[in-house]
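During the second year of the project, the team shifted from modelling isolated chains to modelling whole assemblies. The rationale, set out in the original proposal, was that interfaces cannot be judged from single-chain predictions alone. As a representative example for this report, we include one of the complexes processed in the last quarter. Its constituent sequences, exactly as entered into the pipeline, are reproduced here:
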Amino acid sequence: MAIDYLERIPNNVNLSENRRLQRALESWQPGFLNWWKDTGPEGFLDNEVYLRTAVSVDSGGWAQFGHVRMPDYRWGIFLAEPEEDRRIGFGDHKGEPAWQEVPGEYRGVLRRLIVTQGDTEPASVEQQRRLGATCPSLYDLRNLFQVNVEEGRHLWAMVYLLHAYFGRDGREEAEALLERRSGDDDKPRILGAFNEQTPDWLSFFMFTFFTDRDGKYQLASLAESGFDPLSRTCKFMLTEEAHHMFVGETGVGRVVQRSCELMKEHDTDDLRPHAGIDLKTIQRYINFHFSVSVDLFGSELSTNAANYYTMGLKGRFQESKRDDDHKLSDLDYAVTQLSGDKIVTAREPALLALNERLRDDYIADCQRGVDRWNKVIKKEGIDVELTLPHRGFHRAIGEFANNPIAPDGTPITEAEWDHHHKDWLPTPEDHAYIQSLMKPVTEPGKFANWIAPPARGIHGQPIDFEYVKFN
Ligand SMILES: [Fe+2]
Ligand SMILES: [Fe+2]
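Output from the structure prediction step:
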């Protein structure tokens, strides 16, 4: 389905046939643009950036590439194609036709789910606001901005649902999405990880690898929703999300690659005298970003998650591919727990354990990326392995919150934590060192010393292409 770019708000939802909704969204649009100018990429309003823009939602060839100024980006409302006679796939309403309108009894819950997802989208743009000034290359700068404009579009996606289906409450929530700010004392973003800073590019790559991947799993389970407009919205968002995780995985991979090269060149694993990032620092960043991202899945056992499922609002990852009754009433699921000073696995009701199940899917996906980084290290002939810490490490939510666990999964005392945590999490010295490396490299084809060039450019362009134009 092609997208109508003649409209002020590009869309594939026949917006022009719904005047009231069109006017409501057109009146939200200036606020969005002001938000972008106030909190979007600092200092790059006039640069032309080689961006991809969605021109259709078909799986093949949906994107068009070209240089655009970010404030002119064609943010719009794009839903995946409707599925004919789609049925609700799980929960109490399994088998009933998917809802095209909000079911009255679930209105509040559904609105909360949409607002919570929507709030993460502008938050990440705010967190990444100042990174442009220290880009390691034009290639990376362009990727940052691509991620930023798409997170802006994801905000549009959620705001469309709020405006189209939730009446006045929805409009108020849409306003509030533009008012909260990442890290703000008075009006912070809703979820903890989205109030952390993304102060440097190593953090950015870790964020897009670990935290955008949380987004993938949340979107994938919302794509199963019985509320069809939400499902179709999330399906299209997932196609964009894949690129964000690509940026993260290849970004960290290229840092790892460069670190290995420097280790061999200087015959040392202490790379700070050589302006590189040592693998131990990379490991500490992994530990941090992984632990704050697994927190985003919530408590191991959750009646909220069970309710979302039973109501048919939020399914499991790849719900339709699971071979069971899709109601989970009599099933159980293995949950890792703390029992005294031991970590054990217990069978718990599958319905209550849905957060943990989604976290399991997420962790397996993260592990595949870490395995690919380790391949890079091995190929360079270096005998080091990066690892994911245990799921209980450095948690602030759920079973393990405030119980010190070592990265290998050993429960430890507070005193042991105090003694060792500087080996496990980035220290102020690490942050200061990484910050000292953050110097802009803006000559086409050149890269900062701490990161290797990518294997290839964007959309068939050469690596030394002028991905961002400085006039
Ligand atoms: Fe997003
Ligand atoms: Fe994302």
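Residues 121, 151, 154, 215, 241 surround fe (ii) ion (ligand 1) (CB under 6 Å). The CA atoms of residues 33 and 217 lie 28 Å apart.
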